[in-house]
Amino acid sequence: MHPTPAEPRRPGRQRSQESRDAILQAATELAVEEGYAAVSIEKIAQRAHAGKRTIYRWWPSKGDVLMDALARKADLYIPVPDEGSWAADLRRMLDDSFALARVPQIAELTRALMIEAQIDPAFRERFRSDFLERRRAALGTLVQRAGLRGDLPAHVTEELAADVVFGVLWYRLLAVPGPFDDALAAQLVTLLTADAAG
Predict the structure, then answer these.
(1) Domain range for residue 163?
(2) Residue 194: what pLDDT?
(3) pTM for the predicted model, two decimal places
């Protein structure tokens, strides 16, 4: 039997991906330049040279377009590290997360999406499942790996680690601004790697 030749790349699929990328880029640029409230599907379509129907075929709202753009940045700039220990993995993820949170445009977009989630119940569910749970799952992978490796403190669970890390992140983004710096990262690592007091 002769081997099946590799399937040639479909031009339509490539154009579709290029169109999606252009739309996400346009939405991000507009949010940075004009602020979340001023962004509209019409403006995104015009900037991306795409049809409104094309955008609505992939995303139900401008919030979903920008959430997808933010999720892509998070996946790109906050990979799931494997540094050999729970402490090192956690520190690397915190460093990467905080570096992204220090970018003013990213921080503002993140705040805007959380605000939108409080206003629109349907978007809230999509934001929770498509973004928040996605980031919690990434951290959960580190916790699971540490458990298998044997260097996870007994009191630390996936839920606790996520609540601590993302609770601090969102609190500083939304309520009481504070620096996302090395000192904060070190404090969180200490909190989540130290053995529980007896």
Answers:
(1) 61-193
(2) 92
(3) 0.83
